[in-house]
Amino acid sequence: MTRPLRVLAVDDVAPALAELVRLLRESPEVGDVARAGDPITALRLIQAGPLDVVFLDISMPGMNGLELASLLARMTDPPMIVFVTAYEEHAASAYGIGAVDYLLKPVSAERLAAALTRVRRFSAPDTAPAPAPVDALAAVPVELAGRTRFVRRDDVRFVEAQGDYVRLHTPTGAHLVRIPISRLEEHWQHAGFSRVHRSYLLAVPAVRELRSDLSGGLLAHTDVGDVPVSRRHARELREHLLEAATRGAFEPPDRRAAR
Questions:
Q1: Same domain, yes or no, for 204 and 165?
Q2: Helix segments in the chain, DSSP class H
Q3: Mean pLDDT confidence for 117-138
Q4: Domain interval for residue 95
Q5: Global confidence as pTM
Q6: Are the CB atoms for 37 and 83 separated by under 8 Å?
Q7: Residues 117, 144 share a domain
Q8: Among candidates 74, 26, 76, 30, which has minimal Cα distance to 53?
Q9: For residue 13, what is the DSSP state?
Q10: Is residue 124 over pLDDT 50?
Q11: What is the pLDDT of residues 158-191, one digit of tens each?
């Protein structure tokens, strides 16, 4: 017997969200239906448990559905995306991101059933291995002038602790985020980040060279600044650098600068 689909519905307009949830719950293809009234809540729900498909509105404040879908596409095992919108002009962008279907509001039960059939066709069989966990914090939300943007982990060269906050240093600037550096270390160490100082977390592939400062201490040079390396972490960093070089994890400087 085919397992019912696990679904998340996302829309910032409460009546539209309620109607979509109602239609989904009436479908025999669907099992659990979660709901979110904004993209940040949707991200939290996606990280909290496995989902098969997200029915996603496009026009939302802070971050639109296309931006959220692009972020989900970078996760280890993202859910499928079906856009539900009142605007036809975004269809090309939606399918370019990899959407399974594109529904225009108001959505009929028949059109929703067709979209669920497409989802089922693209979904893995029940005998497939369990999905890998979501790549937590692959992008970090940053609040800027009332809008939410996401800083990609791959763009961060190093992280600097500042009290209860951290400053993410990237080629496009530094971004202050309220999150403990220990939490970032926990989630980012598998992605090539190494704690090199009590106040610094360093992207190992971003290191251009190691330098000595005026007092004989060690500095890791990156294209956005130098990072102090404590004596207790110096040997470990050198081992990580050697391992990264062996794996070919370093990118040519011109490629990093072009991002």
A1: yes
A2: 14-26, 39-48, 65-73, 91-97, 109-122, 181-188, 231-247, 253-258
A3: 62
A4: 5-123
A5: 0.50
A6: no
A7: no
A8: 30
A9: S
A10: yes
A11: 999 998 899 999 999 999 988 889 988 988 988 8
Same domain, 113 and 207: no
Residue 42 — left, alpha, or beta (φ > 0 → left; ψ -120 to 50 → alpha)? alpha
Are the CB atoms for 218 and 210 separated by under 8 Å? yes
User: What is the rounded (10 degree) CA torsion for 83, 81, 178, 61?
Assistant: 0
Residue 254 has pLDDT above 50, yes or no: no
Cβ(140)–Cβ(177) below 8 Å: yes
pLDDT at 246 over 80: no
CATH of residue 15's domain is: 3.40.50.2300
Token pair, residue 203, equals 């992207």
CA distances from 92 to 88, 96, 101, 177, 247 (A): 9, 6, 11, 34, 38
For residue 59, the one-letter residue type is S
Tell me what the mean pLDDT of segment 52-65 comes to.
88
Kindly report the CATH number assigned to the domain that includes residue 183: 2.40.50.1020
Taking the CA atoms of residue 74, residue 205, residue 200 and residue 67 in that order, the dihedral angle to the nearest 10 degrees is: -20
Last residue in a domain, options 90, 123, 156:
123
Most confident range (mean pLDDT) of 7-11, 40-44, 232-236 is: 7-11
Name the domain count of the chain: 2
Q: Is residue 239 part of a domain?
A: yes
Q: What is the token pair recorded at 240?
A: 């990580």
Give the type of residue at 194: S
Residue 127 has what pLDDT?
41
Per-residue pLDDT band at 98 (split at 50, 70, 90): confident
Do the domain assignments include residue 154? yes
Q: Is residue 129 part of a domain?
A: no
Rounded mean pLDDT, 144-156: 80
Token pair belonging to 209: 């060279």
